[in-house]
Predict the 3D structure of the following.
Amino acid sequence: MKADDRFLTQPREFWANVRLISEQVGYTVRGKKTIKVPTVSDIREAFAKLGLDPGRIVGATNAPSGLGADLLAYYEHRASVLNDLVRPMLMDKDEARATFDELFQRLRPTAPIPINKQKGAKRAPAFLTGIVNMLIEHHAEGLPCNYDPRTLTSITRDGVPLRTLARRIDGAFTTVVDPIAVWEIKEYYYTTTFGSRVADGVYETLLDGFELQELRENEGLHIGHYLIVDGRYTWWDCGRSYLCRIIDMLHMGVLDEAIFGRETLYRLPSLVQEWVEVAKFRAKDQPAHLQTQLRLEQRRS
C-alpha cells in the first residue's frame, strides 16, 4: 500500500496535529471495531481540554481552516484505508499457514524459512517471513538477497561508510551494504494481547524510517523502506491504533510502502521486479567494493 500523494508533502506541523488530536479524541470508535474520524467539534473540545488554541484549525463558526480541512480529509482517508482495505487483508494463523503451505509446495524454495519463537503445538514456520522469503527468491532472477542480516545496514560513498543504521533490519536486497531495499516483518499470529513488544516494533520502524529519510534529504540517496505486517487478532482486534500510526508513517514519508497480510502475495512480486531492474542498472557501473560484497552475499545464500 502506497501513500496518497495529497498528504505526502504536509509539513511537520500537520503531523503534530494528527498525532495530538488522535491521542485526545481516540483512534477507534468505542465499542466498535472501526477507525474513528474526528469531527470539528471533537477537535475543538480536545484543544480546549489541553488549553490550546484551535484557531488555526477551526474558526469561530466551526468552519475548518485550510489546515483543518486537510486534517479532516486525512482522517477520512486513514479510516477508509484501514476499514475497507487493510482489515480484509489481515490473516489469522490458519489462513497464513494455508497460504504458506500452498506457496511452499508450488515454489519449492531454497531460501531460508525460519521457525517462530513459540513452543509446543504452536511451534511452526514463521509464516509471513517464509512467504516473503519465498516470493523474493522466486522473483529475484537469481540475484542475492540477505534474508536475515546479522549486522547493521551501511550506506557508503566511494568505498567509505556514509551512514550506518542504528538497528539491524529483517531483510535487505541485494546486500546489507548499500542495499536497494530493506524491510521489517511484524507477524503476530499467536499473541493474545497487544503488548509493549508489538508497540516497540512500530516505533523501531519509525526510527529506521527517520534515518533513511535523513539520508535521502541530505545525501540524495534513496533506499526502499518497507513494513510488512500480519496477524488479524493482534493488529485489528487489539492494535487498531497502531495501524493508524503505520498509515501515518507511510504518509510522513518514512516508509515507502506498508504491506498487510495477503496483500504480500500480489504486491511483493511487483516490488521485487522493480528492485531487480535497479540492481541491473547498478551492475553496469558498480564499484569494486560492492562487487566483493555481492560475491560474499551469493556465497552465504
User: Anything to note?
Assistant: The radius of gyration is 21 Å. Residues 93-300 form one domain.
